[in-house]
Amino acid sequence: MTGLEIKNLSVNIHDKEIIKNFSLKVPKGEIHAVMGPNGTGKSTLSYSIMGHPAYHPTQGEILLNDQIINDWSPDQRSQAGLFLAMQYPVAVPGVSVANFLRTAMNIRRKAANPSDKGIPIPEFRKILKEKMAYLKMDPSFSSRYLNDGFSGGEKKRAEVLQMAMLKPEIAILDEIDSGLDIDALRIVAEGINTLAQENQMGILIITHYQRLLDYIKPDVVHIMMDGHIVLSGKSELALELEEKGYDWIRQEQPLP
Amino acid sequence: MEKSQDIQLKGIGDSDYQYGFQDPDVSVFKTREGLDEDVVRQISAMKGEPEWMLDYRLKGLKHFQQRPMPSWGPDLSDLDLDHLIYYVRPSEKSEKSWDEVPDTIKNTFDKLGIPEAEQKFLAGVGAQYESEMVYHSIQEHLEKMGVIFLSIEDGLRQYPDLFRKYFGTVVPFTDNKFAALNSAVWSGGSFVYIPKGVHVDLPLQAYFRLNIANIGQFERSLIIADEGSQVHYVEGCTAPQYTTNSFHSGVIEIIVGKNARVRYSTIQNWSTNVYNLVTQRAKVFENGTMEWVDSNLGSKITMKYPSCYLMEEGAHGEILSMAFAGKGQIQDAGSKMVHFAPNTSSKVTSKSISKNGGRSSYRGLVKIMPKAVNAKANVVCDALILHGQSQSDTYPTMEIDQQKVSVGHEASVSKIGEEQLFYLMSRGLSEEDATTMVVSGFIEPLVKELPMEYAVEMNRLIQIQMTGAVG
């Protein structure tokens, strides 16, 4: 299958099992949402898929375009087309957004073609300007140091900007709506929708609240509790969940 | 990150130092090993100096012999002062044209890119090889405006009164043991005078090269910026890698006149067998500004604390200091700011990086004298540790003898975090690229103060030093 597939994945943190026998398929071109209460393992899931070294699978497989990537480093996963927009992006003082993005793009180009000389600067500037414009970002943003002193909303936009520049095949958006006011949420969501269509991207939205899904319509909604998916359905499931709350699921789905 | 435990970043402290090539010994004269009065007299005689200078040297020697080794700071017990050669004359004289410089020496500077840089973006160049300046030249229009840029020996010969007025007034021979040693055996360095109101737009550069093993290089520079003038002086240093130690101990004296502005930038990249113990100080007069941009990448042990004596009202001093210590290296760097007068201000920004067991320290003093009403001083020290076994220390000292002042000190130590690396790697950067990016960002505040050509060079040096196998 072209896209992301997770088969029977279990992940421990400090010897405690957080992800439990988790399975999910996100084909390219589809939007999936994983919803769940706090502490249910959603962020652990996103880190595990991206290959954070502290999150080792104890069983199961993560596949990207039919290749098992369990042992791949985060940079290998990134270069193969995976992207994670993080809930808490880390600051890198002294490195401008533009400089960082150009480095990241050039590394990809070089991996694809070892004799590549890097993206010409005028071309890079043009693309960056274009992407920043549709995320309604001030041009001066690109010369600021990456995530350094950014507001919550700026960090989220910067994550989506990176996604727009790096054009992944599969993007995981971990609580991309937190810290965004309603206007910013709309802009970011529109940006994501455009990218998804342009690139036939597969998207895995990880979110606590339903409100993001008013703007980005998922093909499938999954409810995650206690480390695995307990219920999947069409986008209406999110609305039902919003109305009835997670307790409804708890009653419906006796936990193992 | 688990595997970062065994990252082996090459470069600093490793064997792929790119300036480590050696040339044959082409010297025309050397003093014998070791130091005594005869050696000092011999050096003075070779230079045909006036009597007062010989006396000064002998006083320096006496003070050096009497003064104990410093009891603080890095361990210097491996520094074998008895078997060093204190003076090596590489050629007959300092030339104004590269064509006159002996071939072997000229080739070395060609390899280091000095004549090329001179043509492209420098106002003047001095090049020192072993103990003497072999080349010294400045753009003609500056010479016509009265700018003096000579080897220190030519300065003494051609401008004896100006020289004597200032020599030893900023760093007296009694200042410390190594300043005393330098006062006894100094050789080479620059004599710079910028006349009133003259702005030298392009940098003047001095380049120091040690070639043969077991020698000491004791350059001495005197820079005088007269009222309202401006100048930027840059020094660079390299040497071949030997298994035995060499020694570099310079003294730099700077006078910053009323409303004048001097910037002194160092890119110290000695090979890792060189002891680098340097005394650099500026006296800053009314509303003058002195800026030290000090980057220490090479050497075995560096002890270096550029300082500003803020002598008159409104004088301002700044130090941007960067030290990078790799395997087996100790960078004991820092600063000294002494406020003598009212409304003086100083700012210290120190960035230190330690990797593969290297040690880098910030050692600094801010001293506010009783008369310095409304003095402002601010010190910020950041340390970045790349590997667990590396070390970073901060020794800040504040001596404040006036109530009405504003003094700030901040210090931070960080390790390159797992989260930072994961973040960058999740964008496709390898662990090495990610680490290099964090280091480049860390020193960005310093690099952006360098002229473009040096900033590019500095980024290149950092990249070379970070290159190597990871995990």
TrEMBL record, chain A:
Family matches, as Gene3D superfamilies: P-loop containing nucleotide triphosphate hydrolases
Domain of life, per lineage: Bacteria
Family under the similarity heading: Belongs to the ABC transporter superfamily. Ycf16 family.
Alphabetical list of NCBIfam families matching this protein: sufC
Record's keyword annotation contains Acetylation: no
Protein's UniProt name: FeS assembly ATPase SufC
Species assigned in the record: Flexilinea flocculi
Short name of one Pfam family: ABC_tran
UniProt entry keywords in alphabetical sequence: ATP-binding, Nucleotide-binding
Domain ABC transporter: 4-251
PANTHER family according to UniProt: ABC TRANSPORTER I FAMILY MEMBER 6, CHLOROPLASTIC
Signal peptide, first to last residue: none
Molecular function in Gene Ontology: ATP binding; ATP hydrolysis activity
PROSITE patterns: ABC_TRANSPORTER_1, ABC_TRANSPORTER_2
Automatic annotation (TrEMBL), chain B:
Every SUF system FeS cluster assembly SufBD core domain range: 209-442
Pfam families named in the record: SUFBD_core, SufBD_N
Domain SUF system FeS cluster assembly SufBD N-terminal as annotated: residue spans: 140-205
InterPro entries reported in the protein's UniProt record: Fe-S_cluster_assembly_SufBD, SUF_FeS_clus_asmbl_SufB, SUF_FeS_clus_asmbl_SufBD_core, SUF_FeS_clus_asmbl_SufBD_sf, SufBD_N
Superkingdom field: Bacteria
One GO BP: iron-sulfur cluster assembly
Homology family: Belongs to the iron-sulfur cluster assembly SufBD family.
Protein name: Iron-regulated ABC transporter membrane component SufB
